[in-house]
Amino acid sequence: MSVVKPLKKLVSCVILDLDGTLINTDGIVTDILKVFLVNYGKQWDGREAHKIVGKTPVEAAAMVVEDYDIPVTKEEFLSQITPMFSERWSNIKALPGANRLINHFKSHGVLMALASNSPKSNIEKKISYHKGWRDSFSAIVGGDEVTAGKPNPEIFLEAAKRLGVHPSSCLVIEDSLPGVTAGKAAEMDVVAVPSLPKQSHLCSSADEVINSLLDLHPEKWGLPAFQDWVEGTLPIETWHIGGPVTRGFGRGSKVLGIPTANLSTDGYSDVLSEHPSGVYFGWAALSTRGIYKMVMSIGWNPYFNNTEKTIEPWLLHDFNEDFYGEELHLVIVGYIRPEANFPSLESLIAKIHEDRRIAEKALELPIYSKHKGDPYMYNL
């Protein structure tokens, strides 16, 4: 849910963090630490992730070594683990909305800089795998080019200096608390896009907190607005997910009056980490019944405060019977909104039905209806 404070000023340039803001490094960090810590008889469970997000490599190494009581120095830890990360850089995916944002600002001549606590050489290597990114940034500042990393504001002040602009004209986009703190200390406006689930409250000092880059509205900051929304929906690169229909929480039909066809998240941890929580829509195919319009939520459903990220599609058709166990394939083609909390069950239900009306109308448009013929729909 987007939380916006009254704006104090307009901006003319943007300074972006990299890891967790533009590229999906969180899953790689988890994968590598799980493997690495086994060598010392330890198990990474992710509960300490918030301690290292946004930190410099040395600070993060020191925290892991201390918290897990590993018999190595932080320097030895870094020397052992850095090659493991280097091998994965070519596979780090851009987060949803990252390419859209970079291409949009570049096409409108908006000055952009990268400011990351990672060493400059690592930043250059990571972005080299993303077409057009290197030429889009007028300045790149690494954590090894300043005396202190975030939350110290020096890295953002140096970025503004290299752009040749006053700090007050910069908008910072960050995923971590250290980054938000640094941006505000530099007297810049800050948009927080928390990379860790259910951490938005930690970024309350930001001028705006959004769920993902898909939810950024540049015009709020005096920057050129995106022009790609269609009938209240955002076309996205299509993605697929499928499996047998499972029993969910029993809330769909009984509590909401909305029968969802839930999918197990087993085997889809990477997909769930790649796509931000929110309300999406597209096409659904049931192995013995046909193809239907659908709208779905991905996330923790703040009203019910799920402990796990779930996938809850609603097939927009009146079925006379349940179809648990039947194979379901989904083609997701568009985005409607971030997930949000609601003051009452009635307001939640009303919003879900509004999502349905938006999805049903949008799926009649050629930009979305063409995906009804996606081969994945027929590979059941």
UniProtKB/TrEMBL annotation:
It holds the Pfam family HAD_2. Keywords: ATP-binding, Flavoprotein, FMN, Nucleotide-binding, Transferase. Its EC number is 2.7.1.26. GO terms for biological process: FMN biosynthetic process; riboflavin biosynthetic process. Residues 234-364 form the Riboflavin kinase domain. GO terms for molecular function: ATP binding; riboflavin kinase activity. Pathway: Cofactor biosynthesis; FMN biosynthesis; FMN from riboflavin (ATP route): step 1/1. Transmembrane segments: none annotated. SMART domains: Flavokinase. The keyword ATP-binding applies. SUPFAM superfamilies: HAD-like, Riboflavin kinase-like. NCBIfam families: HAD-SF-IA-v3. This is riboflavin kinase. It comes from Cuscuta campestris.
